[in-house]
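A reminder before we start the practical. When you read a complex entry, don't treat the lines as separate problems. The point of joint prediction is that each chain is placed relative to the others, so the output describes one connected object in space. Small molecules and nucleic acid strands, if listed, are placed in the same frame. In the example below there are four entries. Take a minute to note the order of the lines before looking further.
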Amino acid sequence: MTDILPADDRALVDALVQLTFAIQAVLQRVAAAHDVSMIQLRLLGILRDHEPGMRELARYLNLDKSSVSGLVDRAEQRGLMRREPSPDDGRALRVVATPLGRELIEAGAAEIEREVFGLTAGLSEADRRQLLTLIVRILAG
Amino acid sequence: MTDILPADDRALVDALVQLTFAIQAVLQRVAAAHDVSMIQLRLLGILRDHEPGMRELARYLNLDKSSVSGLVDRAEQRGLMRREPSPDDGRALRVVATPLGRELIEAGAAEIEREVFGLTAGLSEADRRQLLTLIVRILAG
DNA sequence: TATTGTTATACTCTATAACTATA
DNA sequence: TATAGTTATAGAGTATAACAATA
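Here is the predicted structure of the whole assembly.
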């Protein structure tokens, strides 16, 4: 594949959006394999490294706090997480993954890593380095 | 940014997933700006170049046909598309975008192009060419 | 008063199952 | 019988508005 032609902006945008759909399809499939929704998987992903309050969770997920109440309700009913009182603030809660929730997200994350990495099977090691560099620069923008 | 280090596979996967969320956020925002959902915008995107039947639409969107019935119901009520009888098959329909639906998707697509391209503002022309090449190779995989 | 969180309500999106009409 | 599509039903996800409890 040559680099001598100027990039077509629309082609780049189309490629980026198509890539998005391909990756979202992986996430969707992995979530479904564990019988949860993508948003629940994402929520568990946050709980991997955080014990956020409801408001913090709403900010991470870009949802209204009332939506998060419902998400956590259903996840709690499934035994994936629990609400704990905040030690500092009598109004606030901390949402914590249960061992079951942790198992699910660890397994899911491993599958996502394997499958998404698998999308890059056609690239060389140098290509992957280059791709990572470019994406990191986009995300830093 | 140097290329002398070997790529960390997990870092690449994380970057790809984060990029996905960033682009999905753009799509979500553009859809919301036009007061439609992402799935409705995507549906209209299909109607830009096709006049599919309900079953075909379900296949494109990877949804059950009954889900598509509801999507088209609501879009039709908003005047964005209409069902027409198929000339060939008495059972089948063709779904066609109305001028209003066409306006919406043309405007939305332009905004998406502008905003997604904007994400690459920190890249040089050569970087963009390289990025396009890499993504095309992933999608061809 | 402001903040944290829940609840009531309404709507969209989705799948499953049962149905109608046409092929 | 098989296919194209709809409808009934149920549940998840979401936002808005009103609320309770704490800061």
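Discuss with your neighbour: Residues 95 and 138 of chain A are 31 Å apart (CA to CA). What might explain this?
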